[in-house]
Description:
Shape of chain B: flat
Number of helices of chain A: 20
Number of strands of chain A: 20
Shape of chain A: globular
Oligomer: heterodimer
Largest interface: A-B, 32 and 25 residues
Mean pLDDT of chain B: 86
Structural class of chain A: alpha/beta
Low-confidence stretches of chain A: 264-271, 531-537
Strand content of chain A: 25-35%
Number of strands of chain B: 0
Amino acid sequence: MSTAPSVLKIDGLTVALPEGGDRRYAVEAVSLSIHAGEMLCLVGESGSGKSVTAQAVIGMLPPSLRVVGGTLRLEGTTLPPQRHRAFERLRGPRIAMVFQDAAASLDPVQRVGRQIEEVLEIHGFGGRSARRQRALALIGAVRLPDPERVFKAYPHQLSGGQCQRIVIAIALALDPVLLIADEPTTALDVTTQAEILKLFAELQAARGAAALFITHDMGVVAEIADRVAVMRVGRIVETGTRDEVLNRPQHPYTRQLLAAARATGDRRPRQTSQPILEADGVTRIYRERSGLFASREVHAVKNVSLRLRRRQTLGVVGESGSGKSTLARCLLRLEPIDGGRVLFEGQDMTHRSERELRALRQRIQVVLQDPFSALDPRQRVGDAVAEGLIIHGASRSAALSRAREFLAMVGLSEQAAERFPHEFSGGQRQRICIARALVLEPEVLIADEPVSSLDVSIQAQLIELFTELQRRIGFAMLFITHDLRLAAAICDEIMVMRGGEVVEHGPPADVLGNPQQAYTQQLVAAAPGGLGIRDAA
Amino acid sequence: MIRFVVLRSLRALITMLLAVTLVFMFLRLSGDPAAALAPPDVGQEVIDQYRAKMGLDRPLPVQYANYVASLASGDFGYSIHTGRPALGLFLERLPNTLVLGGAALAIALVVGIPIGVVAALNRDSPIDRGVMAFSVFAFAMPNFFFGLVVILIGALVFGIFFGGAAGPASLGTVLAPALTLGLASMGAFARFARSSMLETLNKPFMIAAEARGVPRGRRLLRHAGPNAAIPLVTLIGLSLGALIAGSVVTEQVFAWPGVGQLLVRSVATRDIAVVQFLVLAVALTMTLTNLLVDLLYLAIDPRIRAR
């Protein structure tokens, strides 16, 4: 392999950020090369410069970013300058790109078949019927059933995974020598992710293309990489074969990424205590209008029972649409309950009025997934945290000083209270949300995907924070996530949900180490790079 | 898709029924038409005679039923001044208004949308700022005032008098009133085309198309254009209302012998049957154009077709 010429060779690429940014270079002295048939994974978190590197390769750097040094060569030939028209002849036939959000990267008002044909047409492939044949063959090659029908479909008629298959088909249409994939499976469910990864790797290997695969997930790396380059704040900190990097990481940052991906389920079981929050056959039905007068019932949550004990963490795991968030809203009584009961300290809360619930609200708090929309952009952080205390009867000055205390506890500075949410990063905002929830000293904290929108290393810090605060304050936590690894890392008990129902329930080692239900087995198998739970079991 | 068409048509029908009912109610609410018609110094028995002749002495539900029945049978009433059928008066004037409205819409579309798109493609450049300044001016300018300015400039600078278009409409005579009528819509179209285009240009599928080597011209024409047009269609449908309302004023300013002028005269002379018919005609136009816009959606947005 080492004698084969490089398809892509990047030498000392340096890209300058606009003046006044938080650092001078988006990408600094990056060198890497990829051979034909080889898959190089570029790993790092958002802002590390991996996407900028990819944009530079395909000649689509935004005008605000300037290449100030280094060379880019495709099969020995220097690439044109950024945004040069000559790139139009390279994009498609020589370099193809697959984006993160497949559904959004297809034109919503054009049939997908036409979009495959378009690439063939603009690059002068065959005649009309030859293009159609080729498009149908490509749809078959990405293993979509019934190519004739898929050809005529619009993007909204396909699932996210199916759209990503179409995007891959478009990328492969002209047999490019270099494939770039920028987080192509991040937006997908775990099971779909596994299928798409496998498909991508197979097609790339079969066609002998070089691939630059960008991801933040070491699990994905373990699954598909031949070689790995780890990026951090614009620099490559480590390169090597997959085995070298995964098994003998040299750089501390690589180890950190690996640790985050390998979180294991070795939690000591805690002593049983009194249940504080219980659900007994909770059911929530949505009515969907399906005609002028007719409606259809959808069971968002179906007969779910759970018992959350004091100081315990219960994980609710499932893919999007499995009903986990609806369950959380039912438990918070933010959503009407169509069947079953919710009990707090043994008392039935199912039919309490909003007034009666007010005192309870203080004792059950929630942290939501998106820290950007969960904070009022025009409210100072200190006021946001203090608001709950004031509502529940504290004086303004007492509430504010308590808010500062809790902001410090979640690792933010004293001055944070005076600032506005937009001045903080995603991870910091989630800390603010946590402070806002915990300042009321709740007995139950419901965390709905609290870290899924954050980078891996930030995730790890926040998980540590949750665990630490739980030890100090002693709340019980319902932790909702789609990420099995995460659930295994912090939960005492795990509940797996699918289609609104609980399909499996037990300690993490049992649920993940020895899944009983086919669906859980599928989830465990699909998690990229295996679960790391193997090490623990 | 068939359901969509049926539902929208049903909705249009209901809207028309409501309009018919409202017109009936408002004309009864605004005082006794018989008393308004009769000369001021006649006695009560003359007024009663008028009432009996017009059917106003019967109970309201009966009046309503008769009114709907006569509408359904195509009897739209007669002008009390000339005794001619309201429909005939309307049809006589309709071609002039269609020419004026059509020309105004055409000018608004042909100028407004391209300058909006050009502004979007040159975002934050002097061109962009110029277009935006113009569109604010166009949108904010009241047409009765702009019309007078046009007449004034035409007369003083070019020595052409725009203000008295007698006889059949021609390209030369329609230009000034059409520009006056279409100006506000032109500004609205320009602003909206710009923002819709800007939004579309930043969509991931536009970036993906660039990454596939689709040339810029084709990206704009085949991908950005159709997607940006979807919200514009709604605006065009809505702006027809503004055009109809504006035509009443513009026809007055330019002495344009159209339906708007007829409406103003009929209101001034309390020609109830004609007013009633014209209001219904306007309501029907609005309802039908909005139905048309809904159906146009079907053609351009597959996501609606799926419903």
